[in-house]
Design a protein that fits this description.
There is one protein chain. With about 575 residues, the protein is an all-alpha fold. It is built from 26 helices and no strands. The relative contact order is 0.16.
Length: about 575
């Protein structure tokens, strides 16, 4: 009953907002560029909190200890860079999709080919694989909770999957009708519910085992509670650690922000709101949301030490220790997490198909009404492909690493294109395609497969870098007219646009040196706060105090830097 009420409420809320997404493509995909920072940031956090994430963290902690979370914590470096280096640039570009930027930055046929390739890769294989592992995680939860059998229903071999597809169709209704407004407003409600559910499971699980002291005592003398990403970790090789900390965050395809995040930043009211939204996301994602998952993962390891699939520890705790009404609330919270991610992926993938393929190459003169209709039809297609991907996925963590692998390589080009005139469309296209092909091949092709994840990242990044450098220096740079127009619109900082600055007579709106200092201070503040909470939670007071001292010092430095007038 609780789950049913939640599903009906989500559907009605999405449909209520439908009128806000029907006026134009800008309304449908970027909310008319009117999102407040707190709503945009919460939506970004909800997008990365799916039903697969607590399962993924449970499996990660069981195999590698708490420090294994640096597999995703390392992306915090990228996300702080996004706050101070890229958020304002993206908002200034006034694009609808990040693929659209390619024809602002580059010109001619190569730019058009790059835009089409990027739109297809992001909308279909990469996006649908992501949807597939979200669907897979939901199937695992339904299986672990034994929902259908408890109702006296035999779902058959694929019954669980079809039930998840049914929920996806419900998400499709409001995401396809209301557009991004429907997505972000339901995201707010769903994030609060999902976070509350995670805290509830953590509290009940801790109460059952006798508190955090019992958990800490159980792992005394092991590496399980180590917070720092060095030392002899459980199943974490030196090469994998190096890949996480020094390669993954800048080599990944989201090094300058990432597709779904860019959609939120582009939808913000202005540049300052985009920056605040990015900070709010980081606080929610790393400081707040991390620790309920970690606590549940540790308690699951204590109670179920021999669980064959450690990813199922989270739903097992729910089933075994929550009474019916609370269990309904937590199942609804997991569905909320799943639905927030699915609605974003549906809307995001459809934006590429509509804006970057249909409108750009097929119907450039299409009316706004036709484009909104095309967006809704594209949403249906993306959802169907995501369901197909779920039929073939088996392991949440393995699919997560596949998504990382096929997206590794082009990150450095995506950063440099903002700050160096010499990067051209051929270089970015080569980096994107080479990274995808090498990452996929070294993950799934037996002959060239690289089992060690760290070496896989480094090999993919190295070969991709060689490929795009050769491609760039073998082809002509972009025309002066294209470069000048891009600089005139974005006005990035740094020495890489000296000629364009002279040609246009315009000073940059970005002080890159100052923003790099703010980035360093922001990294100290974010990770100091996150590890400070973790240190005290895991009964490691020296770590906790040290991390909070770092956070306070970095916060003071950041506040001092903030008092300087922003050149933008």
């Amino acid at each position: 009953m609780v789950v049913g009420i939640y599903l009906v409420f989500s559907l009605l809320l999405g449909l209520y907002l439908s009128r806000r997404g029907t006026r134009s493509l800008v309304d449908f995909f970027v909310s008319g560029r009117s999102l407040p920072w707190w709503l945009a940031g919460t939506s970004m956090a909800a997008t990365t909190f799916s039903i697969d994430t607590p399962l993924y963290v449970c499996g990660l902690v069981a195999q590698r200890g708490v420090a294994g979370n640096w597999e995703w914590w390392s992306f915090g470096l990228t996300h702080v860079v996004m706050i101070y280096i890229f958020a304002r640039l993206w908002r200034r570009s006034e694009i609808i999709t990040d693929a659209e930027l390619t024809e602002l930055r580059y010109g001619g046929k190569p730019a058009a080919i790059l835009r089409a390739t990027k739109a297809f890769l992001f909308a279909v294989p990469i996006n649908c694989i992501g949807m597939g592992y979200a669907l897979l995680a939901t199937v695992k939860v339904i299986d672990a909770l034994d929902i259908w059998n408890s109702l006296g229903i035999d779902p058959g071999v694929n019954g669980k999957l079809w039930s998840v597809v049914g929920v996806s169709v419900l998400v499709l209704i409001y995401a396809g009708v209301a557009g991004l407004w429907g997505v972000v407003v339901t995201d707010l409600f769903q994030f609060v519910l999902a976070l509350g559910g995670a805290v509830l499971v953590a509290g009940v699980a801790l109460h059952h085992v006798g508190g955090m002291g019992t958990v800490v005592a159980h792992f005394q003398g092991t590496e399980m509670l180590r917070l720092w990403p060095w030392g002899e970790q459980v199943g974490l090789s030196a090469s994998t650690l190096f890949g996480y900390m020094f390669v993954q965050w800048w080599a990944f395809r989201r090094s300058d922000g990432g597709g779904e995040f860019i959609q939120r930043l582009a939808a913000a009211k202005d540049e300052a709101e985009a920056e605040r939204a990015a900070w709010w996301f980081n606080i929610l994602n790393y400081v707040v949301r991390t620790w309920p998952w970690v606590v549940v993962a540790l308690v699951a390891r204590v109670i179920y030490p021999d669980l064959s699939d450690p990813e199922l520890g989270y739903p097992r705790l729910m089933r075994d220790f929550l009474p019916p009404v609370l269990l309904g609330l937590v199942v609804a919270s997991l569905l909320a997490a799943f639905m927030s991610t699915m609605s974003t992926l549906i809307n995001w993938g459809a934006s590429y198909l509509t804006r970057d393929l249909y409108q750009r190459f097929w119907r450039p003169q299409a009316s706004q009404t036709e484009l909104v209709t095309a967006g809704r039809l594209a949403s249906v297609g993306v959802t169907a492909l995501g369901a197909v991907a779920a039929f073939y996925a088996q392991d949440v963590t393995a699919v997560f690493r596949l998504v990382i692998a096929i997206g590794t390589g082009p990150g450095v080009v995506l950063i440099l294109r903002w700050f160096w005139w010499r990067v051209n469309a051929v270089a970015e296209w080569t980096a994107m395609v080479a990274g995808f092909a090498i990452g996929l091949g070294t993950t799934v092709v037996p002959v060239i497969q690289i089992p060690d994840f760290g070496w896989r990242l480094m090999v993919t990044t190295g070969i991709t870098a060689l490929a795009w450098l050769i491609a760039m220096y073998s082809t002509a740079p972009e025309s002066e007219a294209t470069l000048n127009e891009f600089y005139r619109r974005i006005r990035p900082g740094g020495p890489g646009w000296r000629r364009q600055k002279q040609a246009t007579g315009l000073a940059p709106l970005q002080d890159l040196g100052w923003e790099l200092q703010r980035t360093l201070a922001g990294i100290g503040l974010l990770f100091g706060s996150m590890l400070g909470v973790g240190g005290f939670l895991l009964w490691q007071p020296l770590v906790g105090w040290g991390a909070w001292i770092l956070a306070v010092g970095a916060g003071w430095w950041l506040a001092k830097l903030q008092r300087r007038v922003n050149p933008g």
